[in-house]
Design a protein that fits this description.
- By secondary structure, the chain is mostly beta strands.
- It folds into three domains: about 1-20 and about 370-400; about 25-195, Jelly Rolls (Sandwich), CATH 2.60.120; about 200-365, Jelly Rolls (Sandwich).
- The chain is built from two helices and 14 strands; from the N terminus they run αββββββββββββββα.
- Strands 1, 2, 3, 4, 5, 6 and 7 form a seven-stranded antiparallel β-sheet that branches. Strands 8, 9, 10, 11, 12, 13 and 14 form a seven-stranded antiparallel β-sheet that branches.
- β11 and β12 (about 310-315) form a beta hairpin.
- The longest helix has 27 residues, at about 375-400.
- The radius of gyration is 29 Å and the shape is elongated.
- The two termini are about 20 Å apart.
Length: about 400
């Protein structure tokens, strides 16, 4: 009896664990007052206000896939593209429960021209924080209303529009959709929070024994270029996010290493002691300008003021020709190095290059992702449950 109770307890904990890991989006409601068109009923209804945040929007047939929320303009006039009621179709109010920086908005919608379901003409996104009036409007007209070309009744084309929100801080968000056609069908609305702050707190270039960065367009006087998240311009003259390090003792045709000094040495200070999964190094190759990939980088670690050690050496940079004919255009490449979870609050990178120039664009450290406690609990409870079942079956076999 005791074992049975334990087993039932394990199953109950297991069930609670699964429930606690269910995805729960921001709460929302339709603004259904006299000034705004509410959602339809039936298969396209949304009586529980859950369809748009349940993570499901993958069925192309809106009749047999009940995850779509449809909003009909009751005053729609065929052939009239003047806006009809002119009312939001629909207006949605989202409540996040807490103030958050918002990165982007993803809207999943359906187009089925045969059923008079069309993409919205526009959506206006507005924001509120701490009870303030909605404002800061962002208007997007980027919906795709091209024909779905699906002959089966009820089948439509699933499309997604992503709208950058620029990190605006809000605890509530309002969406006003306008549609000159009869029906709007929405499947999922996902508000993406701003990315986590970077691990890197700051960095410096090495002392007099190591090659410093160049000045001019390839300089880095404010020590920000390598951690600003920008490394997307192939032209190093017109795109000032690149940091260039020149070996002053470079001898053309001499591949023996020249000065043999790190080109450059960079010491990164992290915001706190962190288990590190990897480092991503973005660099440029432009052979015409004598900018080549590093030959090697040595990564070493310090924690709590200890001496740098635990070296990891990578030789995996790609120095193949960039094959770009325009002056100052180079190939952007990224090397990711596995750091194996080493814990550190400072990281030192020593680059070696037998060629004249090294050009770096971005260096990003990634922390080890720690599983949620609920995931661990699920695994433990599952193991215990299977162990109890196995023991029970063994005892039955022995008794028989």
């Amino acid at each position: 009896m005791l074992r049975s109770n334990v087993f039932m307890t394990v199953l109950a904990v297991l069930a609670m664990t699964v429930a606690s890991r269910s995805a729960v989006g921001a709460g929302y409601e339709y603004d259904a007052d006299a000034g705004h068109v509410p959602p339809g009923g039936g298969v396209l209804g949304d009586p529980g206000n859950t369809k748009l945040t349940d993570g499901i929007a993958d069925g192309i047939n809106w009749i047999s896939s009940p995850q779509w929320a449809g909003v009909q303009d009751p005053t729609f006039v065929p052939g009239d593209l003047a806006g009809d009621s002119g009312l939001p179709q629909p207006r949605l109010n989202f409540d996040f429960g807490t103030s958050s920086p918002l990165d982007s908005l993803e809207i999943t919608y359906l187009v089925d021209a045969d059923a008079k379901i069309h993409a919205p003409d526009s959506v206006t996104v507005s924001f509120s924080n701490g009870g303030s009036p909605f404002g800061g409007n962002i208007v997007s007209t980027g919906f795709d209303n091209s024909l779905d070309n699906l002959p089966t009744s009820g089948d439509g084309a699933i499309r997604i529009l992503t709208i950058p929100l620029g990190g605006v801080v809000a605890d509530s968000l309002r969406l006003d959709f306008l549609n000159d056609f009869e029906w709007t069908a929405l499947g999922e609305i996902n508000v993406v929070g701003a990315p986590e702050p970077p691990l890197t707190f700051g960095y410096v270039y090495g002392d007099a024994g190591h090659l410093p960065p160049a000045g001019g367009v390839l300089g880095d006087p404010s020590l920000t270029k390598l951690t600003d998240g920008i490394a997307d311009g192939i032209n190093w003259i017109n795109s000032p996010q690149w940091v260039g390090i020149q070996d002053p003792a470079f001898i053309p045709g001499d591949l023996s290493g020249d000065t043999q000094l790190p080109q450059p040495r960079i010491v990164f200070t992290l915001a706190e002691s962190t288990p590190l999964a990897s480092v991503e190094i973005t660099y440029l190759v432009d052979h015409d300008a004598k900018i080549d990939a590093p030959d090697a980088v040595t990564v070493s670690f310090s924690d709590g003021g200890s001496a740098f050690g635990g070296e990891i050496v990578s030789l995996d940079f790609d120095g193949s020709p960039d094959n770009l004919p325009n002056s100052a255009d180079g190939a952007i490449r990224t090397l990711t190095i596995d750091l194996g979870g080493v814990t550190a609050d400072s990281v030192q990178l020593d680059f070696l290059n037998d060629f004249e120039w090294t050009a770096l664009g971005e260096i990003k450290f990634n922390a080890v992702v720690i599983p949620e406690p609920s995931t661990f609990l699920l695994a433990v409870c599952g193991g215990i449950g299977m162990m109890l079942i196995r023991r029970r079956d063994q005892r039955r076999r022995v008794s028989n």
